[in-house]
Amino acid sequence: MYDAIVVAIAVFIGVAGHELLGMAMLSRPIVVAPLTGLLMGDLQTGLIVGAALETIFMGVVNIGISSTAEPALAAGLAAAFAIKLGGNVDTIIPLVFPLAVLGLQLMNMIFSFVIGPFAPKFRELALEGKDRQITRLHFGLWFLHYGLYALIPFFAVLFGSDVVQKILESIPEVIMNGLTVAGNMLPAVGMAMLMRMLWDNKIAVYFLAGFVCVAYLKLPLISIAALGIVVAVVMAQVDFQIKNVSRAKAAVTSAAETDDKEDFFA
């Protein structure tokens, strides 16, 4: 019961806080999974699951009706199941993307069939000028929406952990090995999705530099991140200097044109 409650709380904080604070990214796996691990007493496994899932969902962006998956539910359940199965992360990761897809559909169903019918009430209160009632209704529906959504991981952990463990124990070793390989490949797929959105030939040289640092120089990710920050700061300074020079040239050109006009009319 305790595990089910804390997973529901972690997912609620992720999805509800993300929307309440203006897309604050609290629903990302790197937040929800460690929070779940912390509440369940195994922060290390939560961090491992969060980092692994973040690389997968980093390339997943939900914009309007163009939506694919909801990562908070998958992160909470993946962290909970991995902890309950003794830290077995590799076999859990391949199962979480379908959970994320299902979670998004369930969230949309709650929004459409439970929250949506209250839209005319907002219009009615607005026409009557009842600001306080609008605020109360807004936060009430906010809590109802994500509270109902948090019940999904609650019941999944409450009734499903033993079932998941039995299913995993009954799977042949060759299939388990296949799931492990697939789990190791999913982060690469997530990074590929992100690169497909961000790729530009102008930044290809930086990608090549990062590849050389990892593949040949064997630098750790922390040092590569530090190098990335240095490169970003340097490029920002160069762009700022170029912008200042352009402004100075524009000012000189404008002044020269003004002098020419004054000489012509003189």
Summarize the model shown.
This protein has 266 residues and is an all-alpha fold. It has helices at residues 2-20, 29-40, 43-57, 71-84, 93-115, 119-127, 131-170, 173-198, 204-215, 221-265. The mean pLDDT is 77.
Secondary structural class: mainly alpha
- The oligomeric status of these chains comes to single chain
Beta-strand content estimate: under 5%
Largest sheet: none
Number of strands: 0
Helical proportion? over 70%
Radius of gyration: 26 Å
Order of helices and strands: HHHHHHHHHH
Shape, please?
Answer: flat
Mean pLDDT: 77
Helical segment count:
10
The poorly predicted ranges are none
Q: How far apart are the first and last residues' alpha carbons, in Å? A: 91 Å
Describe the structure.
This protein has 266 residues and is mostly helical. It is built from ten helices and no strands. It is flat. The mean pLDDT is 77.
Index terms:
flat, 266 residues, mainly alpha, single chain
Question: How are the elements arranged and paired?
Answer:
Blueprint: H1 2-20, H2 29-40, H3 43-57, H4 71-84, H5 93-115, H6 119-127, H7 131-170, H8 173-198, H9 204-215, H10 221-265
Helix pairs in contact: 1-2, 1-4, 1-7, 2-3, 2-4, 3-4, 3-8, 4-5, 4-7, 5-7
